């Protein structure tokens, strides 16, 4: 390697997996400095990759006598084209609740290789490639006596103007029984800024804010904004611009606007914002529940550009989880099994991966060296 020009060495290192790069930091001081540098991290993150470079973070829960055990698995494409195989041991999910509320756990991201795990109280930022994680500090904004806070939506992304990671959390405040009158309900918004490691309240949040739903894939970061599937008399998409920190709404296709016997999820298919309309698992089967509709927004933030991309006869699913390889829809079924549906061949496949019904979550990511932003809480390792 000493005989190679420096730029050739750097170009070779750009193509090396994260695990190997961590070992190579021990080769020389110059390599250590190079691999630790922000420029190298950015180039490694933005290098040309294929679907073969994708990994899957799979979270699930198991019911045990003392509560629920929450587990993360690290998966990659197996020997078969669409197989999923573990490439490292499972780990316990840190900090998240072990009660029945684990069905409300969310995975949000990835953003520069970082993923946010949340429950009703805690927020944990992780890099699954480097196996680093950190519990974010709790919000200082309390609830006055006689009121109760319910967290309705959370989002995580990168502010490209301020060069900082942000977490936004929406909550509704209402009186505890027997004073829980809707007339005293109000919305609160708060933002965590990684550059200052602290929270602040969002101005201009009014009582007419649509209510986000806390379903799997009900939120996504896309085009510098957080998006939530929400409801205010009709189904809407609630948006929060990460740069300006302002709320707005977008319409969904007219046939999806009524909350009848369908649920909705937000994903990205072929780089388009995508809306899934799928059967509500809490209702009895009926003709309207026999299909899943997949809509894409061809021109972002133009309501008239929604088109129906696919209509498929649905297996008995609990909820969508992710889109893999732009053709495989990953679902959890009502029994807690991970299944896939191939948009090209209509093939349904069940993986040997399961958990307590409703607790499965999936995030597809590419390895990155992005460090966990430091703050008042300690960065730890799995």
TrEMBL record:
<dbReference type="InterPro" id="IPR001810">
    <property type="entry name" value="F-box_dom"/>
</dbReference>
<dbReference type="InterPro" id="IPR017451">
    <property type="entry name" value="F-box-assoc_interact_dom"/>
</dbReference>
<dbReference type="InterPro" id="IPR050796">
    <property type="entry name" value="SCF_F-box_component"/>
</dbReference>
<protein>
    <submittedName>
        <fullName>S-locus linked F-box protein type-3</fullName>
    </submittedName>
</protein>
<dbReference type="InterPro" id="IPR006527">
    <property type="entry name" value="F-box-assoc_dom_typ1"/>
</dbReference>
<dbReference type="Pfam" id="PF00646">
    <property type="entry name" value="F-box"/>
</dbReference>
<dbReference type="InterPro" id="IPR036047">
    <property type="entry name" value="F-box-like_dom_sf"/>
</dbReference>
<dbReference type="Pfam" id="PF07734">
    <property type="entry name" value="FBA_1"/>
</dbReference>
<feature type="domain" description="F-box">
    <location>
        <begin position="1"/>
        <end position="48"/>
    </location>
</feature>
């Amino acid at each position: 390697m000493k005989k190679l020009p420096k730029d050739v060495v750097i170009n070779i290192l750009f193509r090396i997996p994260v695990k190997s790069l961590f070992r190579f930091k021990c080769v020389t001081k110059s390599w250590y400095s190079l691999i630790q540098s922000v420029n190298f991290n950015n180039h490694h993150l933005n290098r040309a990759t294929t679907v073969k470079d994708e990994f899957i973070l799979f979270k699930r829960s198991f019911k045990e006598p003392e509560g629920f055990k929450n587990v993360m698995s690290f998966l990659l494409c197996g020997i078969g084209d669409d197989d999923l195989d573990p490439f490292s041991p499972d780990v316990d999910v840190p900090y998240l609740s072990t009660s029945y509320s684990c069905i409300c756990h969310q995975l949000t991201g990835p953003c520069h290789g970082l993923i946010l795990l949340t429950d009703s109280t805690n927020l944990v930022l992780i890099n699954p490639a480097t196996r680093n994680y950190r519990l974010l500090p709790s919000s200082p904004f309390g609830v006055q006596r006689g009121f109760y806070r319910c967290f309705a939506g959370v989002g995580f992304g990168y502010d490209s103007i301020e060069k900082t990671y942000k977490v936004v959390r929406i909550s509704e405040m209402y009186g505890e029984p027997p004073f829980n009158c809707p007339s005293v309900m109000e919305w609160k918004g708060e933002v965590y800024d990684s550059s200052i490691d602290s929270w602040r309240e969002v101005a201009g949040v009014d009582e007419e804010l649509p209510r986000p739903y806390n379903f799997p894939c009900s939120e996504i970061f896309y085009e510098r904004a957080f998006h939530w599937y929400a409801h205010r008399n009709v189904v809407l998409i609630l948006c929060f611009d990460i740069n300006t920190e302002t709320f707005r709404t977008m319409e969904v296709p007219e046939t999806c606007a009524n909350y009848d016997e369908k649920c909705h999820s937000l994903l990205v298919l072929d780089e388009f914002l995508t809306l899934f309309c799928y059967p509500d698992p809490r209702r009895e089967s009926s003709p309207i529940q026999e299909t899943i509709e997949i809509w894409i927004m061809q021109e972002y933030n133009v309501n008239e550009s929604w088109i129906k991309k696919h209509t498929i006869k649905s297996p008995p699913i609990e909820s969508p989880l992710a889109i893999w390889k732009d053709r495989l829809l990953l679902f959890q079924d009502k029994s807690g099994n991970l299944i896939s549906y191939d948009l090209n061949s209509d093939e349904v496949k069940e993986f040997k991966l399961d958990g307590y019904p409703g607790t499965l979550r999936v995030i597809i990511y590419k390895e990155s060296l992005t460090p966990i932003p430091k703050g008042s809480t300690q960065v730890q390792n799995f």
